[in-house]
Each structure stands twice: as structure tokens, then as C-alpha cells.
Amino acid sequence: MSEKSPLVIELETLQQQAQTELAALKSESELQSWKTRYLGRSATVMQIFKRLPEAAPEQRAAIGQFANQVKNTLEAGFNQMMETVRQAQLQQSLKSEQLDVTLPGRVPARGRLHIQTQVLREVCHIFNEMGFQVFRTDEVESDEYNFELLNIPAHHPSRDMWDTFYTTKEGVILRTHTSPGQVRSMRAFNPDPIRVVLPGMCYRYEQMDASHEIQFNQIEVLVVGKDITFANMKGTLVEFAKRMYGKDVRTRIRPGYFPFTEPSAEMDVECFVCGSKGCPVCKGSGWLEILGCGMVHPIVLQNGGYDPEIYSGFAAGMGVERISMLRYHVDDIRRFWENDIRFLEQF
Ligand code: PHE
């Protein structure tokens, strides 16, 4: 070949520069941008064919060949470097992702039902087996159902038994007990006989301490029919206590007062913490109060649409947190709703 064409010199310089740069590259992305720069559509090697007219006619074939050669060399260099970089990355990730198959497995955290949901279901289950069905009513109640229809008119002194959360809407409150479900279920079932349990959350405007919460669960029991007697009530509640606390549990029924039952009573079970010897839990008495109950007041029957001359019934209401506190020796009712996972995980 006579004198070197400027195009060949340009290609030679280019090849050298490209190869020097290539050798220093460390990542796939650097390599890709190198490739666009030197082998992309607008790269010099690619454009050289269009520029062949710049060269003397007898040199053009050789220049074309040389350009192809440069292109192939750069491509081969690129592929090789890519392989090197990929290998290095693989080594790196193998090192950082070492797997020790002898390590003990990690047990995944499993959710569970809240302790009070469990106890609520247990109590409902016992009553289900005794022929009761579950009936749910709302936690946001009217003053009418929570008090008035239960024979507790406005300003009646017995309202002091239920410190109430009022809403900004006149006459709308948070239920202070599950008893409003009495009239609600009577109006729903009328004129059929009723055998229901009403479980759910209640709210009271209390000063909180170890035995007072502003929210807690109750379960209400209601039976309405012909010839329902105090003896039926006693038999039902004693049977419940046996199924709940063991068949040898001793119970007693004392007189009590509620405006919506007449006569009213309270039921105690013997203290199973101390075996009724007397301890701090039963305050030395040997007995634990578990529920309030009584024969449904004639006025309440009437409000539910049942003629008190023909129908009678009994009702009972119990606190569900108290059941758990006694059974699991929980010393503070506030633990149930403060959502401390260390407490909840124990059940
Ligand atoms: N609702 C009463 C309370 O919260 C308990 C009760 C229910 C008493 C049914 C008698 C009959 O204190």
C-alpha cells in the first residue's frame, strides 16, 4: 500500500483509545455506554463506510476491510470484558449471599384471636349448646333503648350505675351495657318465644384503674316465653357456671337491684383462686360475683311488645374481662385493651 489513508490513521487511533478505555471498565452499565460510543450506529467505525468517497478510489476496498476488522476486534473485546465483569459480579454475590443450611429455621409470626374474642366465643358456645342463639345489636345506641325502655327514665337516680359517654347528637350514646339488646331482640322476635345471648363491647365514662375500664365486653342472656320462672333462671345460670367453671363449682344467688328486672339478683361462684378460703381477689369473702340477673320487669316486657299477663322472662348480664381476669390471674383490666403484644401473645 502506498501512503496510509487518513481514514486508516483515524481508525487506528480510535481502536487504541477504545481498547484502553475498555480495559478499565468495571460494570455492565459502563460497558453498555462504551458500546454505544464505539460500536453504536453513529460511532466512527460505523460511519466510515459513508465516508469512503473521501479516500482515493484504489484505497477504498482496503479501508472498508480494515474498518470491518476494527469493528470485529472491538466487538470481541467487548464480549470478553462483559464476561469478565459478569464473573466478578457472580463471585461477589456468592460471597455476600452465603447460605448456611445448618442454621435453625425462623418460625414465622402467626396471628391469633384476641383473648377476649376467645372467651366471648367460649361463653356463646356454652349457651349455644344450651339452645340459645347469638343476637347482635349496635354499640352506638339511643338513650331510649339504653335507658328509657329499660324502665330508667331521665334523671332517675339509678342512672348513676352507668356513667355514660354522650355523643354530640342529642339522644345518641355509646351503650353502657348489653341490656338495650333486650328490647331490640324482643321487638325482632315478637311474638315468638326468645332464647338469645347478646355479646359485645360496652363503654362507660369511668376513672380508669385496675378494675375499671372505659371499654369492656358483656354478654347478656335473655329468655322470654310463657311460664318462665325464677327457678328456670337459677337452673340455667347454675348450669352455665358448671360448664364454664367446672361441674363441682359452688354458686349462690343474692338479692340485687336493677330497674329493668324484678326481682333482681346477683350470682356468685366460690373463689377458685383460694378455694373459698378468702384471699385478696375475693376480698376475703370466698365468693366472686360473676353476673347480675332477674325476672324481666313487666314494663320492659311491654316495651318489647310482650303482654306481661301472658309472658314472663329472665335476663342476666356478665362482664367478660372479669372471667379472664379470674381464670388467668390478670391483675389489671387495662391490659386487655392497651395492645401490648407481650400480654396478648400469652393467650
Ligand atoms: N345490665 C346490667 C349491668 O350492666 C346487668 C344485668 C343484665 C342485670 C340483665 C340484670 C339483668 O350492670
Summed up, the helix count is: 11
Q: Kindly state the mean pLDDT as a whole number?
A: 92
**Small molecules bound in the structure, each named once:** phenylalanine
Strand order of the largest sheet: 1-4-5-9-8-7-6
Distance between the termini: 93 Å
How large a portion of the residues is in β-strands, by DSSP E?
Answer: 15-25%
Regarding quaternary structure, how should these chains be classified?
single chain
Into which percent range does the helicity of residues fall?
A: 25-40%
Structural class estimated from helices and strands: alpha+beta
Main β-sheet description: 7 strands, mixed
Question: Helices and strands, in N-to-C order?
Answer: HHHHHEEHEHEEHEEEHEHH
Given this structure, which CATH class of the largest domain is correct? Alpha Beta
**Poorly predicted segments:** none
Instruction: Provide the number of structural domains.
Output: 2
**What value does the Rg take, in angstroms?**
42 Å
User: What is the CATH architecture term of the largest domain?
Assistant: 2-Layer Sandwich
Any key phrases for this structure?
347 residues, alpha+beta, BirA Bifunctional Protein, domain 2, 2 domains, seven-stranded mixed β-sheet, two-stranded antiparallel sheet, 11 helices, 39% helix, elongated, binds phenylalanine
Question: Can you put this structure into words, describing what you see?
Answer:
The protein is α+β, with helices and mostly antiparallel strands and 347 residues long. The protein has 2 domains: 6-96; 115-344, BirA Bifunctional Protein, domain 2 (2-Layer Sandwich), CATH 3.30.930.10. 39% of the residues lie in helices and 18% in strands. It is built from 11 helices and 9 strands. Strands 1-4-5-9-8-7-6 form a 7-stranded mixed beta sheet. Strands 2-3 form a two-stranded antiparallel sheet. β6 (251-256) and β7 (261-270) form a beta hairpin. α2 packs antiparallel against α4 and α5 (115-129) crosses α10 (320-328). The longest helix is centred in the first third of the chain and has 37 residues, at 60-96. The chain is elongated. The termini are far apart. 30% of the residues are buried. The mean pLDDT is 92. Phenylalanine is lined by residues 177, 179, 220, 258, 261, 292-294, 315-317.
